[in-house]
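Justification of computing resources. Each target in the renewal requires a structure prediction run like the one illustrated here; the chain below, 353 residues long, is used simply to show the kind of job we budget for.
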Amino acid sequence: MVIALVVLTLGEIALLLDLANRLLGSYVRTPAGVFTRISIVVLACVLLAMPACLLLLDYESDSRRYVFYGSSLIGLVIFVHYLFPYRFGISRIRQARSTKDQKVLVPNLLVRSESVRVPSLSAGRDALQFLVVSDLHCNTHEKLDLIKGAFAELSNDMFDAVLVLGDLSENGRILPQLISAIADLPSRHGTFLVRGNHDFEEGRDVLIEDLAGRHSIKILSNTSSHIPELGVRLVGFEYPPAHAQLPPKSECPMTLGLTHTPDNIILFSRLGVDIVVAGHTHGGWFALPVLGPLLIPSRLGRFLNEGWFKRGRTIMYVTTGLPYFADYHGRPGEILKLTVRPTEATEGTAHVR
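Resulting structure tokens:
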């Protein structure tokens, strides 16, 4: 009896966590949309718990006892289904990391180095270097100074392209200075940007588009762009995922996807994109041993927090981005240096080093 009640409780918790993740991930803005989602989950929780309530009222009934244990089994299935959501064909790629893979730029902000090998690149060619910046959330001048200091530490490097993954700022007055600082990052073939969910609030998407145009930053709004010198095609999907459409396929040797939300890995996988970079999650919140973070803003549930993932031939790195507040405490933010090398692999899939 006790074990069955525990299993039922775990099923209820899993349903509620999945609701929270989906609300955070989809950013439902209308009261009707929020009410509908909450009502469906509450109804599911009531139906799951009802056999237990009936059994407490009439414990001697064998039929109700069987219904109760059947409900407990359903609760176990729900718990496994929602808390370990590999149901989308997405798997995590485990990679050993060392302190050599990261360098502190300024207090509470580091640069992380990641390397992948892609068989579609021509063998023997030089490695490609990309700088990936996401979730700056630059809302104060203190945060702007921190970001400028970090960018200054990167000024002596040279990247093939700079990739910006959205959620720049919720303060429109700071955006001109921020985008100017982004435009100054060293890049041989330009800076490319996809906007995030916060960038579409209060008309900031229009302001960002105007400022990006002034600084020759190319916005990939569900479109693609080619860098012929590198043999690379960039495909950018913007938030929200429901608005993203697949651009036409290309004969470019390698395709690299840009997206704010990692939920778009399903779309990128259908397109046959080699590598995807994403942000949005900030690594998740309320992490527990074994289970990991409980809340992650993803429509796919409690799964895509940070690191490398794979779906089909497509691999994706989810960066934690910067912390919301520019203090010197808590979890440090990260900027990503992504190195892409050719490989002689015969399986047609990219490999994380």
